[in-house]
């Protein structure tokens, strides 16, 4: 089809109006999630999604996003251009209709888009409503059409302002400071999101240009370009770039079945976990859905069929389970369907029943051919799965050993756990404490009504490098699993959690940071639900105790300490001179430093006594309660999971088997480490 005929078929009659725009400014959170950083960036995603829909429909090859001064964003594409002819229902230009009426667009009617990511999305009209200024420029039919808006209302009619070459749409918007808590766009968030979209829309070129700051003469503004002809196969290579691959060739297929376009890629690594990302019409489905069910079912059946056919599994052997074939599997499953049915407004799960057989059919046929054509890769994949099967059997025995006589079956809790008297999980919290010394102070200082203490001896096992059976043989991890009460893996039950808050409390030194990282790795890999549901915290013990006379302050970082020092010095300087004596400016003298009970004691010239805590065990129970455990005064950080892909790669780099990426990370960031206490 020629571009001219495509343009003529995409006109005002394809634009369907569902309802008005007025509610958006009153309740912005209903449309973009919130008015903080996430909601602000959601404005960009809505505009870019329109351009990506043009690309998925085969009409756009290039998208340019430009960050401009004054918090403005420009998104330009070379698609067909939003129609500008008069819409028969609104009696206004189709461009004005799309940008000023909620749920108006080519995604709802027939003939606009066969595939679109924005069916639940509320579109660029919401961006318009929440922007103090917007400008739309459309290159179409040899002319450049323009309309400007203020808070969703047009300032003039759509009009041509000159001639143009080619076709396309440019949207420039400026978020409304009355709506948003912050107007600062984060370039890293934008890069990560648009890189992912480039993987999912193969062949489209996405360019980001940052023009927020003046550029010196002779230089150009920072820019980033993403274009992946390999589609999701390139995405899998990106996800595995720091991992040890079990086979060289990435399995990849891109085929349409039953009206569903299925694109998926897969490669096995030496990991003990599954890394699978699923997308429907370029939307990340965090809870999977029918496309993921179809992929997993076909994977299990096809690998069992091949393993038996080639003799890797004998008649007496059990079949490989889904758990066995998913261990170490990195996969991206991306489907495009005409009318996606998402479960819930968040689009977390795809519900289209027709997608499952389509994915199963495409996956099974392509994987059978791949295994036959790449026997070495097939041998490596089956070998990995059979090894996982053996480990699963061993792990089941280990799990039974841990849990059979544990609290999960109503028996005794671990002896080292100092439990709280409250039996109501909603009012209870568990402190995971480093070492017996700190554990002793915590047990004495706590409120035993609702605070439980579990001291851990030494550093727990790095679960990133260990199979399940080895993990369950670790006494510290066994104690923690029993204390939590939730079980783990496929048997995890959040409703059995014995404490509402799980608090990691370690020393503020290198060893404490390492232990905290090991614990975070354990929770991320085996108890991610506790992070996602907001149950995991990190305690923030103070670094310093500052005393001047009877006035005592606890300080949590070095910047705050310097501020307190300056405040005391200012108070000293402001004191009036004694009667009969002229006030004399004193030159600050050197502070005196001494070691006392393992702590560093510093006394400044102004009489300020500063105590540096090296560990939790050096605080007496009263101090530990007052600074770190008292709900009225303590400081805690909630552990969240904003970006699963980035978190997964970070844990893999810092805790995995590959040394080179970790070495590069240390070399890159070593100079940024301040006050390293070894």
Count of DSSP helices?
A: 21
Say how many strands there are: 24
Question: Runs with pLDDT <50, length 5+?
Answer: 107-111, 117-121, 405-411, 579-598
Overall average pLDDT: 84
CATH homologous superfamily of the domain at 3-226 - what is it? Answer: Histidine kinase-like ATPase, C-terminal domain
- The CATH topology of the domain at 3-226 is what? Heat Shock Protein 90
- Compute the gyration radius: what is it? 30 Å
Span between termini: 68 Å
- Biggest sheet layout: 9 strands, mixed
In percent, how much strand structure appears in the residues? 15-25%
Oligomeric state: single chain
- Class by SSE composition: alpha+beta
Range of helix content: 25-40%
Q: How would you sum up the global shape?
A: globular
The second-level CATH architecture of the domain at 3-226 is 2-Layer Sandwich
| CATH class annotation of the domain at 3-226 | Alpha Beta
Describe this structure in words.
This protein is of the alpha+beta class and 678 residues long. Among the domains are: 224 residues, 2-Layer Sandwich (Heat Shock Protein 90); 166 residues, Ribosomal Protein S5, domain 2, CATH 3.30.230. Helices cover 35% and strands 20% of the residues. Strands 1, 2, 3, 4, 5, 6, 7, 8 and 9 form a nine-stranded mixed beta sheet that branches. Strands 10-11-14-12-13 form a five-stranded mixed beta sheet, with helices on both faces. A five-stranded mixed beta sheet has the order 16-15-17-18-24, sandwiched between helices. Strand 1 and strand 2 form a beta hairpin. The longest helix has 30 residues. The N and C termini lie far apart (68 Å). About 5% of the residues have low confidence.
């Amino acid at each position: 089809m020629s571009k001219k005929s495509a343009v003529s078929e995409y006109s005002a009659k394809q634009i369907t109006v569902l309802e008005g725009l007025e509610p958006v400014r009153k309740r912005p959170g209903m449309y973009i999630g919130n008015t903080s950083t996430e909601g602000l960036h959601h404005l960009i995603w809505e505009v870019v999604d329109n351009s990506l829909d043009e690309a998925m429909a085969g009409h756009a090859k290039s998208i340019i996003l430009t960050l401009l001064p004054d918090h403005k964003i420009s998104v330009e594409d070379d698609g067909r251009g939003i129609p500008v002819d008069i819409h028969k229902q609104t009696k206004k230009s189709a461009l004005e209709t799309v940008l000023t009426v909620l749920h108006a667009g080519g995604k709802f009617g027939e003939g606009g888009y066969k595939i679109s990511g924005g069916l639940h999305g509320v579109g660029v009209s919401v961006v318009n409503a929440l922007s103090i200024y917007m400008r739309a420029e459309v290159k179409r039919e040899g002319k450049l059409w323009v309309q400007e808006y203020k808070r969703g209302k047009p300032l003039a009619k759509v009009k041509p302002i000159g001639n143009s070459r080619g076709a396309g749409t440019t949207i420039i918007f400026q978020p409304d400071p009355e709506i948003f808590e912050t107007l600062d766009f984060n370039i890293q968030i934008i890069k990560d999101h648009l890189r992912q979209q480039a993987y999912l829309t193969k062949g489209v070129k996405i360019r980001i240009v940052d023009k927020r700051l003046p550029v010196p003469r002779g230089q150009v503004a920072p820019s980033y370009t993403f274009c992946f002809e390999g589609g999701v196969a390139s995405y899998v290579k990106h996800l595995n770039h720091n991992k040890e691959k079990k086979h060289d060739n990435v399995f990849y297929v891109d085929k349409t079945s039953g009206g569903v376009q299925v694109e998926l890629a897969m490669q096995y690594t030496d990991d003990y976990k599954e890394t699978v990302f699923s997308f429907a019409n370029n939307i990340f489905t965090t809870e999977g859905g029918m496309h993921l069910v179809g992929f997993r079912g076909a994977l299990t059946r096809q690998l069992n069929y091949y393993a038996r056919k080639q003799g890797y599994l004998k008649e007496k052997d059990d079949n490989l389970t889904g758990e066995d074939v998913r261990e170490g599997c990195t996969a991206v499953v991306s489907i495009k369907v005409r009318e996606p049915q998402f479960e819930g407004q968040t689009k977390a799960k795809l519900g289209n029943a027709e997608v499952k057989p389509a994915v199963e059919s495409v996956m099974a046929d392509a994987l059978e051919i791949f295994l036959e054509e790449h026997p070495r890769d097939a041998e490596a994949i089956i070998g990995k799965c059979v090894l996982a099967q053996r480990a699963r059997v061993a792990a089941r025995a280990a799990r039974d050993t841990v849990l059979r006589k544990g609290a999960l079956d109503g028996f005794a809790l671990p002896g080292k756990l100092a439990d709280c008297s409250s039996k109501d999980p909603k009012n209870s919290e568990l402190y995971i404490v480093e070492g017996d010394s700190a554990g002793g102070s915590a047990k004495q200082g706590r409120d035993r009504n609702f605070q439980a203490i579990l001291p851990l001896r030494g550093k727990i096992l790095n679960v990133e490098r260990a199979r399940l059976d080895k993990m369950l043989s670790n006494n510290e991890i066994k104690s923690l699993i029993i204390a939590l009460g939730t079980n783990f893996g496929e048997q995890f039950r959040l409703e059995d959690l014995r404490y509402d808050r799980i608090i990691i409390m370690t020393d503020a030194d290198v060893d404490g940071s390492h232990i905290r990282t090991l614990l975070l790795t354990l929770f991320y890999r085996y108890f991610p639900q506790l992070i996602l549901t907001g149950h995991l915290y990190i305690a923030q013990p103070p670094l310093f105790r500052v005393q001047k006379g009877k006035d005592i302050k606890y300080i949590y970082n070095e910047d705050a300490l310097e501020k307190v020092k300056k405040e005391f010095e200012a108070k000293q300087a402001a004191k009036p001179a004694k009667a009969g004596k002229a006030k004399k400016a004193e030159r600050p003298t050197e502070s005196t430093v001494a070691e006392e009970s393992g702590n560093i004691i510093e006394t400044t010239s102004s009489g300020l006594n500063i105590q540096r805590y090296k560990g939790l065990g050096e605080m007496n129970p009263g101090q530990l309660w007052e600074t770190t455990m008292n709900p009225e005064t303590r400081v805690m950080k909630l552990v969240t999971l904003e970006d699963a892909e980035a978190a997964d790669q970070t844990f893999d780099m810092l805790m995995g088997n590959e040394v080179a990426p970790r070495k590069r990370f240390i070399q890159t960031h070593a100079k940024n480490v301040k006050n390293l206490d070894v």
